[in-house]
Amino acid sequence: MAQDEEYDQLFKIVLIGDSGVGKSNLLLRFTRNEFNLESKTTIGVEFATKNVRIDNQVIKAQVWDTAGQERYRAITSAYYRGAYGALLVYDITKQNSFENVEKWLQELREHADSNIVVMLVGNKVDLTNLRAVSREDGAKLAKERSLAFIETSALDYTNVEQAFERVISEIYSIRSNKLGSAGSQGISVGPARSIADNPSYNIRVAEPVSKVKSNSCC
After folding, report:
1. Whether the Cβ atoms of residue 68 and residue 17 lie closer than 8 Å to each other
2. Does the structure show a pLDDT above 50 at 160?
3. Which of 70, 93, 131, 156 is deepest in the core (most CB within 10 A)?
4. Rounded to 5 degrees, what angle do the CA atoms 11, 126, 88 make?
5. Burial letters for 67-106: b for 16+ Cβ neighbours within 10 Å, e otherwise?
6. Any idea what the Cα angle at residue 13 is, between residues 170 and 165, rounded to 5°?
7. How large is the average pLDDT for residues 27-56?
8. d(CA 125, CA 123)
9. Hey, CA dihedral for 34, 117, 86, 104, is it positive or negative?
10. Distance between CA atoms of 138 and 33, rounded to whole angstroms?
11. The pTM is what?
12. Mean pLDDT, the chain, integer
């Protein structure tokens, strides 16, 4: 069996948020440690994978990215189906992408599993001189909506690994403890536990195994 097919559990994680907030480059940076300065708007859906080791388990993180434009909303139900986690991304230099977070949360409520783990991500912190959304505002909204929160930069790799690992570790914890019962009400969006807060979680990235599965643009 090829190494990129060897895993114990598969976690589907979706990237959501307005078009142009950097979802595709977050996907690319996490799975391949690459960044595309000439990245174009995603057409349709694409995904890539990366293996992460938690305790003695190899977790294949299957990260999905889709276009943020309304004309692709027809694929919404299929996009969210089977997703255990979501990174809701906004651009710290674009106030409207932050204001639209509520719209994306509503979409999660309508289409995602009630126990999906959600993290709010303020991307492009490398553009500090263009910042339109303060870290405090992002953290405040996350607290009000019971979301985990982090700021990232796909360009310089700031907190990219940490964001995905926190979501993956929380999914692992929930599944391991069988807390995600089908009868639960509401979206499970409590703050994802960090590795530092959970020393018993021994997370490390496995050997590079990721491979983009679509011909769509990054």
Report:
1. yes
2. yes
3. 93
4. 30
5. bbeeebeeeeeebbeebbbbbbbbbbbbeebbebbeebbe
6. 45
7. 80
8. 6
9. negative
10. 26
11. 0.78
12. 79
Site of tokens 């599965």: 213
Tokens of 195: 């590795």
Type of residue numbered 130: L
> What CATH fold (topology level) applies to the domain 3-205?
Rossmann fold (3.40.50)
Q: Give Cβ neighbours of residue 134 (< 8 Å, ≥ 6 apart).
A: none
3-state SS string for the chain: CCHHHCCCEEEEEEEECCCCCCHHHHHHHHHHCCCCCCCCCCCCEEEEEEEEEECCEEEEEEEEEECCCHHHHHHHHHHHCCEEEEEEEEECCCHHHHHCHHHHHHHHHHHCCCCCEEEEEEECCCCHHHCCCCHHHHHHHHHHCCCEEEECECCCCECHHHHHHHHHHHHHHHHHCCCCCCCCCCCCCCCCCCCCCCCCCCEEECCCCCCCCCCCCC
Q: Is the CB of residue 62 less than 8 Å from the CB of residue 10? A: yes
The first and second tokens of residue 165, run together, are: 């690992």
Q: Which amino acid is at 183?
A: G
Nearest residue to 57 (alpha-carbon basis) of 162, 164, 169, 167: 169
